[in-house]
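Design review, sub-item: ligand-bound model
Attendees: FS, YL, KQ
YL presented the inputs for the manganese (II) ion complex:
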Amino acid sequence: MTTYTLRSASPAKTRVDTVVVGVVTTGKGVELAPGAEDVAAAYGRDLRPLLAHLGVRGKAGETVRVPTHKAIGAGMLLLVGLGDQVTPVSVRRAAGAAARAVTNAASVALALPADSPALVRAAVEGWILGGYTFTAFKRDTGSDPTGPGTVGVLSPVARQADAVRAFEEAQVVTAAVVGTRDWVNTPPGELTPERFADAVTALHREATKGRGGPPLTLTVLDETELAELGCGGILGVGAGSSSPPRLVELSYRPEGAVAHLALVGKGITFDSGGLTIKPATGMTTMKCDMAGAAAVLQATFAIARLGLPVQVSTFAPMAENMPSGSAIRPGDVLTMYGGRTVEVQNTDAEGRLVLADALVRATEVQPDVVVDVATLTGHMVIALGDRVGGVMGTPEVVDAVLAAGEAAAESHWPMPIPEDMTERVRGSKIADLLQHDWVRWGGGLYAAAFLREFTAEVPWAHLDIAGPAFSSGGAVGEVTPGGTGFAVATLVEYARSLT
Ligand code: BES
Ligand code: ZN
Ligand code: MN
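KQ shared the predicted structure:
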C-alpha cells in the first residue's frame, strides 16, 4: 500500500529516497521544468553540463536516474521528459513513465509541474496508473511489486482547497480505473458472468459497509429471472455457454440529486464470436469484451464515493459468447426485453443484442440521459485506432461527453449515424429489426443505429471503446499493457458536468 500526501516542501530539501523532476525542451535546449527550481538552484552552474553529459533530451517519456551525492536532500534524482509543453496531458504521461522508472525507493517526492489543481490531478493520476501492474497470476512478481510506501506530491498550491480536492478526487478516480483494469485483465475462465457479478457484489458490500456509506443498491438478475423478464438478447447470447448470463443493476440515489443519469455497459466476459466464430488471432484479446460493463460499474462506485449529486442507474448485462449445440444461430429471431423482435445474422455481433435488453431496462427508470459504453466493433478500431473512442448519439449529449473526455484527458471522437443505416436496421423480412446485414462499410455506425432503436428517444450517447479499452503494446505514459480502464474518468467527469 502506498500513502499519498500533497505538500509544499522544497524538492531540494525534502529527505526522500527519490525525487522526480520534469525536463522540458525549449528553443535553447533542455531545462528543468517548473516545480524543480530549487533543484536547479542547488546544482547551480553544474546543471547544464550534467544534463549534457547524461544526454538528457527532455523527450516525452524519457527517464534518466541521477545519483545526487548529497547535492540535494534526496539520494536519487529522476529526470523525466515532458516534451516541449507543460500541460495536464504531458504531466500525466511523464508521471506515468516516472512510476515505472523509480525502483528501490521507500519514499518518493514528485516535483513535477503542479501549480494548478489540473496539474496536481495529472501528476497523481499519471503516477498511479503508470505504475499499475497486474500480478494476480504471477508467481514471481519481480523485485519491487508494491512500489514505494509514501509518495509526496510537491505543489506550491498544496494548501488551496481546490488543489486538495483535485488530489483526493484523483485517488478516487484512479482506484476505479485500476478496478476496471483488474477486472478486464482477469482471465476469462476466472471471470464468468456469475463471478463477474459476484465481484460487483463484493465491491458493493465493501462500498456500503458501516454507517454513513453512500446510498447504493445492487440487484443481480440470474438466468431464471432474465427468462421471467423476457430478456431475449442476454439469454440468447449466453445460450451457447455453460456459464449462465447475469444482469447487474446498480443504483446510486443521493439526496437532492439534480439529474438522473443511466449508464449501460457491455459485459461479454469472453467473445469467441459464437457460431460465427472468430479467427484465432481475433479471439486472443476477447477477455476485454466486458470493459464497458466494468467501466460503468466502477464509474458508478466512484461517483458515489465522490458524493456527486447525480442519481445514477447502471445496467451491466453479462454473458459469455460461445459456440455450442445450444448456441443461437444466424437466422434465429430473438424477442428482446419489451417485446421487439430481432433477426440474428451474425452471432459475433452479440454486443448489440445484450445492450438492447439493458437499454430498454435503462429507459424504464426515466433517466434524463442514457450513456452506453461498449467494446462494440472492430470497425471503430479501424477508423480511430487503439487510443481513441468513437461517440455517437444525440448531438448535445455527444458534445457533453466530448467535453468531459477533454477534462479527463481521454480521447474521444464524434462519429455520425447516417439515416440510411436506420432503414437497413428496420429492413428485416421476418422480424422488427435486423441485427446485421453483412455490409462491411461503416459497421460501427450500423451498430449505433441499431442501439438507438432501443433508447425510446431519451437523450443518449454511445461510446464504442473497442480500440482504447485494451492495450496490446508496451506501457506508454499512464497507459499500461492490457485493460486500460478507458471511459471511467470520462464518465465521472460527465456526471460532474450534470451538476
Ligand atoms: N467484441 C467485438 C468487437 C471488438 C473488436 C472489440 C476488436 C475489441 C477489439 C464485437 O463483438 C464484434 O465481434 N464485432 C464485430 C461486428 C460485426 C460482426 C458487425 C466485428 O468487429 O467484426
Ligand atoms: Zn463482442
Ligand atoms: Mn463479437
